[in-house]
Structures are given as structure tokens and as C-alpha cells.
Amino acid sequence: MSLxxxxxxxxxxxxxxxxxNLPLNESCLVLGPPGSGKTNVLLRRAQFVSLQDMPNVxxxxxxxxxxxxxxxxxFDAQGREIFPRNCVMTIESWxxxxxxxxxxPLPIEVSDQIERKKxxxxxxxxxxxxxxxxxxxxxxxxEAQDLVxxxxxxxxxxxxxxxxxxxxxxxxxxxxxxxxxxxxLNPPAKIHQLPFHYRLSPKICRMADRILxxxxxxxxxxxxxxxxxxxxxxxxxxxxxxxNQLKLAGEKLIxxxxxxxxxxxxxxxxxxxVARKDDxxxxxxxxxxxxxxxxKAKIIRARTEHETGYDxxxxxxxxxxxxxxxxxxxxxxxxxxxxxxxxxxHYHDNQTYYTVVTRAKTSLDLYYSVALPQELARGxxxxxxxxx
Amino acid sequence: MNELNFFYTLASESELxxxxxxxxxxxxxxxxxxSIPTLTPGSTGVLWKHTPTRSIKPLALIAHDxxxxxxxxxxxxxxxxxxxxxxxxxxxxxxxxxxxxxxxREAFLSNLEAAWTGLVIAEVVLATGxxxxxxxxxxxxxxxxxxxxxxxxLWADKTDQQIIELADSITHTLQTNGLPxxxxxxxxxxxxxxxTLLALNRGDSFSPNHDLRPLxxxxxxxxxxxxxxxxxxxxxxxxPLMNAVPESEAFYGLPxxxxxxxxxxxxxxxxxxxxxxxxxxxxxxxxxxxxxGYLATVAAGGSPTLSLAENKALRFPDITAWAYVTGGIxxxxxxxxxxxxxxxxxxxxxxxSFHIGDSPSxxxxxxxASVLVDRKLPDPFVHLYIKGRVATVAVLPGVNVVxxxxxARAKMTENRFQSQRNQQPDExxxxxxxxxxxxxxxxxxxxxxxxxxxxxxxxxxxxxxxNYNRSKSKKxxxxxxSLTGPxx
Lengths: 388, 488
Fold this sequence. Notes:
The structure holds 2 protein chains of 2 kinds.
Chain A: H1 13-20, E1 28-31, H2 38-50, E2 57-61, H3 64-72, E3 88-90, H4 91-101, H5 113-123, E4 138-141, H6 149-158, E5 162-166, H7 178-183, E6 190-193, H8 202-211, E7 233-237, H9 242-259, H10 261-265, E8 270-274, H11 277-289, E9 297-299, E10 320-324, E11 333-338, H12 350-357, E12 360-367, H13 374-379
Parallel strand pairs in A: 1-5, 1-6, 2-3, 2-4, 4-5, 7-12, 8-10, 8-11, 9-10, 11-12
Helix pairs in contact in A: 1-2, 5-6, 8-12
Chain B: E1 7-11, H1 13-20, E2 29-30, E3 44-50, E4 56-62, H2 65-78, E5 90-92, H3 94-100, E6 104-105, H4 113-128, H5 137-140, H6 144-154, H7 160-174, H8 183-201, H9 213-227, H10 233-238, H11 259-275, H12 283-298, H13 306-310, H14 317-328, H15 342-350, E7 354-355, E8 364-365, H16 366-372, E9 390-396, E10 399-404, H17 405-421, H18 435-463, H19 468-475
Parallel strand pairs in B: 4-5, 8-9
Antiparallel strand pairs in B: 1-2, 1-3, 3-4, 6-7, 9-10
Helix pairs in contact in B: 2-16, 4-6, 4-8, 4-14, 4-15, 6-7, 6-8, 8-9, 8-14, 11-12, 12-14
């Protein structure tokens, strides 16, 4: 798996230090820009800790697609499992499992996602006192910026050693306050920073820098150590009808599945992002009608309750992943296509745009029907375009 | 090993018999420190050393070609316990021995080890259609590319033509291509690449083949560009090909092209290659294949997409071969895990030095096989004592290739029956042929085994002690090479 750094020599000194040299009984928060290896460090630290006679560990992440992605990192280059993939799950699945184990009915479902997270975590707050399960040796939590206070409180009940990774700029929910709550833990979690990143081509970095300013004074472009395919490319495609957007994206994806075939074999993926859940089906149906794309695309989403026919695992033979804006969090794609990108823009803030743009490693295609959203238009300019 | 441990003896026939079984006290010269007596036709030089128990261990027999052949036959017939000779000692011509100069001969490929390794692996990929992870070192050592590269590395004094002919001789002698299906088509597409790499090996921009020069120059430029980490290696690589392939100009702007544009350029080159397909040897056709192969190595914005080339392998195997070659040009570090770990193992075999003091690691040498293979026998390799399905064959001392013997046996048997079938009576009778001769030909396949049985019985009878003298006198009348050496 080329996307994961499984060997020590592939890591920089900061990453090695976080994996090997932190005290085993110390909670910490690791911050870093997209592509800095936060999730990689989290997984390898979990592997390291479990080898220090502390095997009762869990790696928790935010979305099902991200969990499936992390599971692909549980294997070395020879395909041997180096960390138990069953110890990777979404935080929501873990909490639901706690309810089941303690034979307590789940709280009433509410439509608002953040409200649901809060209710679910708050309802589980008492389970530790049942004495049914031992505490974990350590818990490892990805995408910490999108945790709610109740979740952080619940996590701190179940283990004295919490390792969080996150990035304030990649926050998808305005109402979450994960990083602030972690900052107030007692004993406090020690904060560490990963200064360099390796995933984003310079063009993508510059666009992301124009969407959100740096909080530490160093831009993504300045801290980039990108060594992937060059040159990177950002293209805006529009105005186009929805159907023509699909057609154009399909043509580009046919070329990209060919030209990136070797990288895809090594684990790279091509991404298609849409705002609405229903549009995932529209995109998939369109691609299935195209002979050269048939069987090459898959919707990546969480499995609904009692659903049996859908496997959310990333399939190595299916290179194109279709996801929602929220579902693409934490993932990375060699080329990303954001279709109908002005739709639901009133729900999207700068962090959302920043997060989606930084999912693209080398190329980003934006498709719109009327006009690019301002946040994206400000971040991008056609190089070499003619003025007159 | 101390050079003074090696001795050279000009052996008479009886001395040779003694030395080969580790006995005797022959007149000897230290080698290579002292000048040694000239070898005349009919005599045999022996390079040897002492074993820890002070007996003699022969290392190499040195004789002229005809004498070497005679020795092989002699030992196969009279001392089969020592045959084949090349399984345990080297056979060298005086010329080869003279070039040795020291016990160790270093292999050198002008820093092109990675390119040769790529070509060897490409040949296996193309011939077997298997992915890298399923390819074995033994398969790599069975390729013609390996035989050529290894010969060039170790015996650089040979001309390019001689090197390629030597590799061809494996096929001729043992009737095998080494690897299965598609081999013939693959091999014919690799000829230009071997010639180009051999010319590049000797740093030869002025190859005798005019059509090779731009290809050699292009690879030399690529090598130079990578040595100095030139920012636009594609431009330097493409420039020598401009006259033959004007499309090369597009490579000047390659660093600015995104992967999708590179893909379109690749498709255009392949389309143009299609138009040149009837002109296999033309410079334009080979240059187009070279350009497409190089492009596949940088298609994904500097990262390789070898699958682009591999997907065209059935039609244009040379694109894949060029891709594997150009990927290794200028690459000095060969002990990496390239090609799924296979790269370093093949490279190690290509540049392994040859030490005359080591026993041969082959099952037999090709020059001995050419004498001992008997295509008339049910098992043509019976005198070579091959037990396994594969054999290691020395093309030259130190140049060992793996040969699949079952396939070779099957092919020879098939050829034997084919030649019999060709003489069936339903064939139209050649004009002027005697009807009785044709009848005899038709009956021969049915009678042959009986005749052979009779002949064998007769032969055994001849060699019975009471008939020994008669058998000796009969033998002189045969056309077999003499089994005894010339009188001194």
C-alpha cells in the first residue's frame, strides 16, 4: 500500500518521535496540516503501544469511509496484517456497541447529526460504572476537531491515555468543539505539531492557502514536501448542464484510470464528490452506462442499520469512489472531481471548502452549472488565460 | 586465493588421464605469474590446483576447438564417470584462456546494469504474460537478454554479432527458447534493443548499423541528463530522434504536460507506430517504440504507468521492453527492491565476477552439449546426465543460463517424429525418384526400431571380451570422431 508509510525510513523525524518516543501513559493531541501523516502516525502509534504489552487499544475515527481507509493501512507491503483491523471503527459504532454490550436501548434517533452524536455519547456516560468491561490501555482518535464535548468526556472515562490527531482547519461542523475540549482535559493532553506535509501538489496548496489563512504563519505551500506526479492541475469546468458535467467528468476519469493505473494498483483512488446523498446514485448510474467506466466506481458511505447487501470496504479493483462532501473527510484522492459544486453552498463554510480541496493530491476538477462559489473562485485562477 | 596456488601443465594424453582423476606429478608452471608453453593443435593444457590433501584438482582444460570436441566425446564414451567434463571443470580455448590474465574476471556493464536487468525482466513479463510478483529468478536466467547481457559483461572482447549468435546457439543446440508461448515474436522484437544496449555498453555512438546510432545517442543523452539531474531530461532524450521522428518535439514540453496530456501523446505515438508496423527494422518504427516506452515510465507526471505499455504488449512488445530499459538508464543503485525484489537478484547475476578457481556451477557447457546431444536417441540428452526438469547451461565460462529441459526434449522428439512423418508415402513423389526408394522410406519408420535393436545387440557382441579386437578394427571405419588423441 503506497499510501501508508509502514516502514521507519519512510517517516520524518517528527513522525518517528511521536510514534516511538512519547511516554506510554501520556495523553496527547497531534496537530498537522492535510497530508502531514496524522492518521499514519495515529495508526503506527497504536501498533507501537499494543506491542508494549498494552494490547487493549482501539483506533476510532469519524466516518465509515475513513475507517475503511484506515483499515487498508493495517497491512504491510506483503499484505500481512500488522495491526488488527477489527480494532478500527467509527466512534459512533463503538458507542452503539457499548449500548448493546450493556443491554441499554439506543436513544431516540434525531435527524441532526451533531445532536445525535451528543445524545448518543451522553446516554453512554454511565456505562463505565456497570463494571462489565475493563478500561482500555489506550484509545486513539482521528479527526478530533469534529468531536463533541460529550464524546471527549466519554472517551476519557474509558481510558486514561488518549491520543488525538486533528486539524482545526478541516472542521466540517460549526457546532463541534473537539479541540477546545481536549485542551481542557485533566490531566491536560500534551500538544504536538507535525510541521511538514507530503501529499498536496503546489497548486492545490496555493488554492487551499487562499481559502483559509495559516494560523501558525506558515502556508501549506511553504511546508510542502510533495514528490508526487507533476505538474498538478486545477480546472474549473462550466457553466455546464448537470448532464454535461457528468459526461465531462466521465471522459476525464476514463483517461485518469488509464494514466494512473500503476498508482491505483498501489492503493491510489480517484474521487467524485457531490453535495447531496441522492446525487451519489445519479453519478453511479451515469458511470455504469458508460462501457469504459462500468464496474469501476463505487459509492462509499456508512451502512444503514440492518442493511446487509452493501459492503463499505474500499475495493482494490474499484478505483473510483463516489462520496458526499461530508463523507470525503480524512480521505485522499490522486484526482478529485467535485460535481455540481455550487449546490448546497449555503451549508458550506471555508473549512468545508478547504477540507474538500485538500482531498485532491495532484488534480482537482470543479464542475458548476451557473457559477463557481466565491470561496473556490477566489482560490483559483486559470494560468496563462488571455485578458482580451 | 593466492595466485601462486594455480598451476598450468601441458599434458600428454596419459598425463591428462591421471590429472583428471586427481593423480600424477606433472611438470607445472605457476599461473598467471609465469609465461606458459604455447599450445599446439592436438595438445591439452590443464589449469589445476592442489586440494587440501595435496591431490590435484583440475580447474580448466585448454585446447583448440576441435581438440575440445574430441575430448568431450572421448570421455563420454570411455570415461563416462567423468562426463560431461564441463559439469566439474571449465573448457577454454587458448584465446579465452589468454584473455583471463588473472584467476578472477570482473563483469562490467558500463553502469547499465539496471537497464539490462529491466530488459531481462521485461522479456519474462512479455513471454509469460505474468505479473512481476509471479516471476522467478530462474525464469529471468532463462532469457536470451540475460545470456546476451551476461556475455557482454564478462567477455567484452566478443563482437556484438558474436554475442547474439552465442545466445542463439542455445536455441540451435538444445532446440529450446527457454521460455514458453509468444517467445519467438517477443524475441524478434527485442533484437534492436539488444543491439542498441550492446553498442551503448561499449560507449559506441558510431555503431556499424546506421539505424542504431540515433537510438544509442538518445539513451546516451538520457544517461547524461540523469547523471547531472538535468531538469528537462525528456528534451535531451528526444533530441537525437528528431530527424527520424518529428513527433519527438512534443517531448521538449513534457515537464509542463499534465498526466492526461501525456496519455494523449502516448496514444498518438502508438497510432503512428501502427502505421509503421510493416517496416519492422526502420529507424522511425524503433524510435517511436523507444519514445512510447520512455513516456510510459513518466506518464503519471514523472511516475511510471507501465501498464500503458503492458496493455499494448501483444501488438508491440518492444514498447514494454524499452520502458523497462529506459527506467534503468542512469540508475546506479541496483541493490534496491526494484521489480518486486527481483531486480537486485538479476543484477547480481549479471555482474557476478568469474573465478576460474571455483568449480563450474553449470550442469554442462553448450560447446560440450553440441557434441554430446544425440537427436537420434529417444532421450537426446542421455549423455549429459540431466536429471531435473531444468538445467544450467554455460554459454561461455561464467555465463550460465537456465534451460527448461523437458520442453527441449519434447521439441526434439517432436522434430524426430516430424521428420519421419515427412517421409510418409502419401507425400507426392519427387520427380525422378525411384519407386523402391520411396517404398523403403515408407517402411523405414516401422523397421527402424527393429534395426536399432539388432544393431545394439551386435554392438554389445562386438565389445564382448572375445570380440574386442574385432570391434576396434570396425570402429576405425565409422565416421565418429576418433576416441583417442593424436600420437605425439
